[in-house]
Amino acid sequence: MKAQYQTFIGNNVQNNPESNTFANIVALKGLCERDTVRHLQAVIHDYYPQVMGCSALDLSSGQGVAAMTLAELGFNVAAFDMNRDSIAILQRIAWQQDLNIYFGMGGILQIEKLQKKFDLIHESDCLVKIPHDSDRKAFLAAVQNTLVPGGKFVISTSVLTENYDVNDSFESIRMDAEHIVWRQTPDAEAPGVIQDEGKNWVAQKRLSTPAEIKLEMMNAGFEVLEEQLTIHPGNNPGTLRMVLASTSQC
Question: Which of 54, 88, 222, 233 is the most exposed, fewest CB within 10 Å of its CB?
Fold first, then answer.
């Protein structure tokens, strides 16, 4: 683990001795998100030569690593639906290092309630947690309406690849023809439960293929600027990272 830490330091902060990125990631218990940090750093370098006055929204912020990274890079950041246990840690980091971060709650399908537009919106595995078409369309429309003209939508989402078989993982999990993953539940009264072969099932997520995600984004009015697919070893879904721009001028 120490070697892993040193590698991360060497790849990310050795050219900037004053950077607090690594210490902040450790404090937020977010070492598993270091690829997200690298991706955001590259995106900001390529698309935001001047970040002063820019704002960013981090959806389903989790441990707060992406929000912290964006704030370190100079954005005014809204961390939406962050883990409550991590809020105090990130608040302390923001206060000590003069980072502009504020917090919002309410669910990813309610982001328009923020009543604010952003230069950049980042999401990590939000879309995969929205299984049904109507909700996915509503989410992407809300993202469009929450971006400023020319704003970027940066996503990192789990995807279905040839080497992943969800039906080979747990007996209580299965995938249908639309790539919706259903989980068996003992609660027959749970919202969205369906019955099949005497068992109760609830939609858990949707694992689309990379091609399906790309088409979905284009149909929602986004232009694909970049895409990168990572195949993970073993029986695991892949990770698709994309940089998208809204084609709407509203």
Answer: 233
- What pLDDT score does 186 carry? 85
- Residue 198 shares a structural domain with residue 211: no
**Identity at 183, one-letter amino acid code:** R
Domains in the chain, number = 2
- Residue that is written with structure tokens 């929205």 in the block: 130
Of 207, 229, 215, 217, nearest to 160 (Cα)?
207
Phi, psi of 62 (to 5 degrees): 60, -125
Residues 6+ apart with CB under 8 A from 183: 172, 173, 201, 202, 204
State pLDDT tens for residues 136-175.
Answer: 999 999 999 999 999 999 999 999 998 888 777 666 888 8
Q: Which pLDDT belongs to residue 9?
A: 35
Q: Are residues 172 and 89 in the same domain?
A: no
Token pair of 10 as six digits? 């060497």
Tokens of 113: 């309630």
Residues 6+ apart with CB under 8 A from 150: 245, 246
Give the residue numbers spanning the domain of 107.
2-164+207-246
CATH of the domain at 121: 3.40.50.150
Model confidence at 30, pLDDT cuts 50, 70, 90, reads very low
